[in-house]
Design goal:
With 268 residues, the protein is of the alpha+beta class. It is 33% helix and 28% strand. The protein has two domains: 146 residues, Fructose-1,6-Bisphosphatase, Chain A, domain 1 (2-Layer Sandwich); 107 residues, D-Maltodextrin-Binding Protein, domain 2.
Length: 268
């Protein structure tokens, strides 16, 4: 992948920095309160979408169109706007819609900028918590918490024996499959809270996160944040997380490889 120069990185990162603040303001001024929920799967399961998901995505698309009109956009709710540009914005307007529906504050707006198909910048914005995570290069990421900026890093001292694991299967693993990974089940001692868990790993609060069935908009915005903070990201079968799927994130390679080994019975 071609590398962007630091000036271009800062142009896009500054755009995302402002967008995070705009999204939080938009939520508290326009969207907080009533919303309508519908089920995308209609009797075949439960995959909720709300009027707020759609309002957020329209808002984000409009901001991108004004600033970068030739760029491609892929959003969960409104599909792919194609162009010849090497740049593509990937949007999850509300990651954690189930949390949003029941009033949990862990939902977020996730946005990545992809260059030639690979995520290079990511934003995870949490409007209720009034905090957001953003990388400014492939080596530097920050958390902005109530207006204060702090550089973040994974827990570099993490060992497998002391690792804090946050995990959720989201109904994707059957009971028989779960029986094949008893050590993982025993180590699942910390709550998994949507994209906030990945963000917590990037700032050293937990040491490993595993989730099932991530789509590209669930994980692309988090990949550059996690990597800039020093973390490792892959699928459970140790493939590039850019293809999404079942995702494992760890604070270092030793911890990552241990968990990959434990996941082997269910990673095919």
């Amino acid at each position: 992948m071609d590398q962007l120069n630091s000036k271009k990185y800062s142009i896009y990162a500054n755009f995302l920095n402002k967008l995070a603040k705009d999204l939080t303001t938009f939520y508290h001024s326009k969207l907080k309160g009533t919303f309508k929920v519908s089920n995308k799967l209609k009797g075949k399961g439960y995959d909720p979408v709300t009027t707020s998901d759609k309002a957020f995505e329209k808002f984000i698309r409009l901001k991108i169109k004004k600033k970068f009109p030739d760029h491609q956009v892929i959003g969960e709710e409104f599909g792919h706007k194609k162009s010849k540009s090497d740049f593509t914005w990937v949007i999850d307007p509300i990651d954690g819609t189930r949390s949003f529906v029941i009033g949990n504050p862990t939902w977020s707006n996730l946005i990545s900028l992809n260059y030639k198909g690979y995520p290079i910048l990511g934003l995870a914005n949490f409007p209720v918590l009034k905090k957001y995570y953003l990388n400014y290069s492939d080596k530097i990421a920050y958390v902005y918490d109530n207006g204060k900026r702090k550089k973040i890093s994974v827990n570099k001292k993490a060992t497998f024996s002391s690792a804090k694991l946050s995990a959720a299967f989201h109904g994707a693993l059957s009971l028989n499959q779960q029986k094949k990974i008893p050590k993982i089940l025993k180590l699942m001692q910390f709550p998994c809270s949507d994209a906030l868990s990945y963000s917590h790993l990037a700032e050293g609060r937990v040491d490993a996160v595993m989730q099932c069935s991530n789509k590209i908009w669930d994980i692309h915005p988090l990949i550059p944040i996690i990597k800039a903070a020093g973390g490792i990201v892959s699928t459970w079968s140790n493939k590039d997380a850019v293809n999404a799927g079942n995702i494992l994130v760890s604070s270092n390679k030793i911890v990552h490889n241990k968990f990959l080994k434990l996941l082997k019975p269910v990673s095919k």
